Amino acid sequence: MINKVILIGNLGRDPEVRRLESGAVVAKFSLATNESYRDKNNEWQTQTEWHDIVLWRNLAERAERDLKKGKLVYVEGKLTHRKWQDKDGNDRYTTEVVANTFRLLEKRESSSGYSTGFPSEEPISNQTATVASPTTANKDLESMPEDDLPF
């Protein structure tokens, strides 16, 4: 069975970090994801969903240091549901994403590169790609033995 959540969105607030008596560190923040669509009048509409994110231990400490309200982040984790009681004894339910990783997707203020975690640290517009011409590609395929074709 699989319980996996992947979100890319903006932080709704700075992470709220607590240190428990056991020494464990926990961080919580809200993450906004947007979906755009055209309504029946052909007007663009944006629907925002808010997600409660929870991070533990080293990940929580990293979030406290690196994440700020408004930052664009990639979050991966699992969906959890909790039942708890409020101060009046009423049952309450909470749905959260317990993250096992996150990645800041915006340019850091203190560096000139992008902090995406992807192999290239420079913007895509500065990258160059070499593409084989169709005739070169066809010649390469023709020279391959039939059982070695890459598809």
Defining key terms:
2 helices; mainly beta; disordered C terminus; 151 residues; 6 strands; globular; 13% helix; five-stranded mixed beta barrel; OB fold (Dihydrolipoamide Acetyltransferase, E2P)
Can you characterise this structure?
There is one protein chain. With 151 residues, the chain is mainly β. It has a single domain (5-123), classed as Nucleic acid-binding proteins (OB fold (Dihydrolipoamide Acetyltransferase, E2P)), CATH 2.40.50. Helices cover 13% and strands 44% of the residues. The chain has 2 helices and 6 strands, in the order ββββαββα. It has helices spanning 57-66, 134-143, and strands at residues 5-11, 16-19, 25-38, 44-56, 72-85, 91-104. Strands 1-3-4-6-5 form a 5-stranded mixed beta barrel. A hairpin with a 5-residue loop joins strand 2 and strand 3. The longest helix has 10 residues, at 57-66. It starts with a strand and ends in an 8-residue tail after the last helix.
Fold blueprint:
Blueprint: E1 5-11, E2 16-19, E3 25-38, E4 44-56, H1 57-66, E5 72-85, E6 91-104, H2 134-143
Parallel strand pairs: 4-6
Antiparallel strand pairs: 1-3, 1-5, 2-3, 3-4, 5-6
